[in-house]
Amino acid sequence: MSTPPFESCDVLIVGGGPAGSTCARALCRAGLDVVVMDRQEFPRDKVCAGWITPSVINLLELDVEDYRQGRVFQPITSFLTGIDGGPQVATIYDSEVSFGIRRCEFDNYLLRRSGVRLVLGEALDSMRRSGRGWVVNDHVETPLVIGAGGHFCPVARHLGARPGRGEIAVAAQEIEFELDAGQRHTCGIQPQMPELFFCDDMKGYGWCFRKGNFLNVGLGREGGHQLSRHVQAFRASLIARGKIPPGTPADFHGHAYLLYSSARRAVVDNGALLIGDAAGLAYPQSGEGIRPAIESALMAAQIVQSAAGDYRHARLAPYQDRLGARYGLREAPASQGLLPERFKMAVAGWLLRSRWFARHVVLDRWFLHKHDKPLVTPSA
Ligand SMILES: Cc1cc2nc3c(=O)[nH]c(=O)nc-3n(C[C@H](O)[C@H](O)[C@H](O)COP(=O)(O)OP(=O)(O)OC[C@H]3O[C@@H](n4cnc5c(N)ncnc54)[C@H](O)[C@@H]3O)c2cc1C
Q1: Number of structural domains found in the chain
Q2: Domain containing residue 136
Q3: Is residue 284 part of a domain?
Q4: What's the rounded Cα separation, in Å, for the pair 150 and 44?
Q5: CB atoms within 10 A of CB 65
Q6: Does the C-beta of 112 come closer than 6 Å to ligand 1?
Q7: Cβ contact 102:72 at 8 Å
Q8: Mean pLDDT of 328-352
């Protein structure tokens, strides 16, 4: 095998998901020479329901008309929510409150749009300190490495993270597949109306989400104990109720992520910082991670620009402060896990039957973050 040519850059971003591509674009626009390295070739799949809110579109300055040319872009105007197996409550909005995308399309679009040099199909295998900062994989030299490699990010490991050891992660499994003509008629899920099914112990929830001709079904739980058993029982019950077609594949794909409230990863070091899932930023109540991935990428890009080439820990530390200001202090007695602790009580099933609670608390507050102030930062 030939050795790749030695190259240098101002910033190396490891991971080309939404966090990596957003940060790359912002830094490129600021005039920095950026390389994104990803172990996969793009387009690639990412285990994800692919639900994004209007805030994500605004943060990304997404040209929706351009994006939807040949790609799935499913408007969402309503939801069905309830305890799995119990009655469902319909919440209908006057306008579009979310959108469904396919991650293979979305991530590829954003990465190609970033305008930076791409090193795809190469995993970060080694990073060692050098006079100029870092030498990565023995052929890329850079003063700053940004870890955007998701939950198992190798840069996060370098900063001390030990995924799977002592971290309380959410484990989730999902399947996304194209419905054939027959299945489109028998599928009980409406495209504009995703359905959420909370586990009766309130340790997680399942979803059915139809995006155009694609159906996404999944379930996530704190800790992930007996996840496969829960997922297969969920799939069987959805088929029995006529929600999803009998031919829905059973080979669900799994992944994990950290909720902001329970993540304890160091996010800054000399010449290094973490963004997105690598930093453990998903919203505690819903598990939504794309918006915090993009927001953290923009906050990081701003701090990097202010540091003006001096990437010592003290110059990058304001990034950690900005995360705290945006999402709360991690030491705060915030809820741990997918749903607020106080809520995991006998009243949960009763409350979820309330139309008011479903709209104003579950959806507006926990899932749509309608009351959150927009992030103030230079554009993506
Ligand atoms: C089942 C499931 C459903 C979800 N549904 C939603 C949802 O509907 N909406 C939402 O907002 N969030 C959802 N999330 C969370 C969301 O997927 C993540 O928060 C989001 O993908 C984080 O983006 P990221 O850019 O930080 O990391 P990722 O999207 O994980 O990207 C990381 C990239 O790093 C690359 N990489 C990894 N290791 C290396 C290495 N060693 N070297 C080089 N590259 C590497 C990977 O190939 C990948 O491309 C879901 C998560 C799961 C598991």
Answers
A1: 1
A2: 7-74+99-165+260-327
A3: yes
A4: 14
A5: 8
A6: no
A7: yes
A8: 64
Tens-place pLDDT, residues 4-30: 778 999 999 999 999 999 999 999 999
| Ligand 1 pocket residue status of 196, Cβ below 6 Å | no
Distance, CA 277 to ligand 1 centroid (Å)? 6
Find out whether the beta carbon of 49 lies less than 6 Å from any atom of ligand 1. Answer: yes
Burial 118-127 (b: 16+ CB within 10 A, else e): bbeebebeeb
Closest CA to 28 of 276, 267, 297: 297
CATH of the domain at 12: 3.50.50.60
CB-based contacts of 281, cutoff 8 Å, min separation 6: 258, 260, 263, 289, 292, 293, 296, 323, 327
Please indicate whether residue 87 or residue 342 has the higher confidence score (pLDDT): 87
Pick the closest to residue 145 from 124, 131, 170 (CA basis). 124
pLDDT at 167: 80
Phi-psi region of 371 (alpha: psi -120 to 50; beta: other; left: phi over 0): alpha
**Mean pLDDT rounded to a whole number for the chain:** 92
Predicted confidence band of residue 203 (pLDDT cuts 50, 70, 90):
confident
Indicate the pTM of the whole model.
0.94
- Cα(345)–Cα(359) distance, integer angstroms: 19
Taking residues 124-151, report their average pLDDT: 96
